[in-house]
Specification:
It is built from two helices and eight strands; from the N terminus they run ββαβββββαβ. It has 144 residues and is α+β, with helices and mostly antiparallel strands. It has one domain (3-142): Cyclophilin-like (Cyclophilin). An eight-stranded antiparallel beta sheet has the order 3-4-6-5-7-2-1-8. Strand 3 and strand 4 (51-54) form a beta hairpin. The N and C termini lie close together (7 Å). The mean pLDDT is 97.
């Protein structure tokens, strides 16, 4: 199982990826992380009791890596719960680098099978609650 550490100004979130359910999405995120793509980018969208969102190179929510990837919505883990990482997009199959982390299940069930869930924070859940809009992703380290 592929794992990563998302280092932020507010702490570290340790993530396990859903390699089986979203292999292409995990591969894309791992590739971008290893290239340093996310280093220094901000969480440009923070909505309490909903999500924290990052991965936009220009910090507006409109940018991406210059390509798109297909949604992977058929796996067993396609449910947006606390700590779940999911791909942001502007419509089916338009994601690229932007991702969000869910605060809770309360306001996210409508995203199930609409956005690709590709991992989950298993340690450092409190960091999600402490992130404010504009906080930086210092680096993402792939650990296995």
């Amino acid at each position: 199982m592929t794992k990563a550490e998302i280092h932020t100004e507010k702490g570290v979130m340790k993530v396990e990826f859903f390699d089986k359910d979203a292999p292409a999405t995990v591969e894309n995120f791992v590739k971008l992380s290893k290239e340093g793509y996310y280093d220094g980018l901000t969480f440009h969208r923070v909505l309490p009791d909903f999500v924290i969102q990052g991965g936009c190179p220009d910090g507006t929510g409109m940018g991406g890596p210059g390509y798109t990837i297909k949604c992977e919505l058929d796996g067993d883990n396609q449910y947006h719960d606390r700590g779940v990482l999911s791909m942001a997009h502007a419509g089916r199959d338009t994601g690229g680098s932007q991702f969000f982390v869910c605060h809770s299940r309360t306001n996210t069930s409508h995203l199930d099978r609409q956005h690709t869930c590709f991992g989950k924070v298993y340690e450092g859940l409190e960091v999600i609650d402490n992130i404010s809009q504009g906080d930086k992703i210092e680096k993402i380290t792939i650990t296995s």
